Amino acid sequence: VVNPPYVTSLQSSHTGPAVCVDGVDPEIKAVVGAADWTLSHRKLSYAILCLSNIKGCAFIATNRDRLFPSSDGNSYPGAGAVIAALEYCSSVKAVDMGKPQPIMLDILEESHGM
Predict the structure, then answer these.
(1) 3-state class of 16 per DSSP?
(2) Stated pTM of the model
(3) Nearest-10 crossing angle of helices 79-90, 41-53
(4) Are 50 and 12 in contact (CB under 8 A)?
């Protein structure tokens, strides 16, 4: 998930927080959904704005792990939680590029003539 430009609380509207006063960066070509230990409402909102407002913006999923086991013995939300939230809110289905999908290997084989 991208880190959107900073917007102060003074730039909020009465209908909710303004995520990006100047709109989204039209040069963005893709949103990559992955595990993000600093995930915020602002990051989710900016990603959804990109998917909804940038024509041809791809949505790529690194993996769909529901939980991530930690060395402290607990499990925490994995990439699948982030991807599910983005898919639900944007109504855009992500393309699975990471484990266990073979597409990444297919692309590498093709690009290296294997």
Answers:
(1) strand
(2) 0.76
(3) 50
(4) no
Model confidence over 27-42: pLDDT tens digits?
A: 899 999 999 988 988 8
Cis peptide before 26 (omega within 30 of 0): no
CA 45, CA 56: separation in Å to the nearest integer?
18
Task: Please name which of 87, 90, 69, 86 lies closest in space to residue 78, comparing C-alpha atoms.
Answer: 69
Q: Is the pLDDT of residue 92 over 90?
A: yes
Amino acid identity, residue 93?
Answer: K
Q: How far apart are CA 113 and CA 109, in angstroms?
A: 6
CA angle in degrees (0–180, nearest 5) for 51-52-58: 25
The amino acid present at 43, given as its one-letter code, is: K
Three-state helix/strand/coil letters over 31-97: EEECCCCCCCHHHHHHHHHHHHHCCCCEEEECCCCCEEECCCCCEEECHHHHHHHHHHHHCCCCEEC
Cis amide prior to 100 (ω within 30 degrees): yes
Candidates 50, 66, 64, 68; CA nearest to 95 is 64
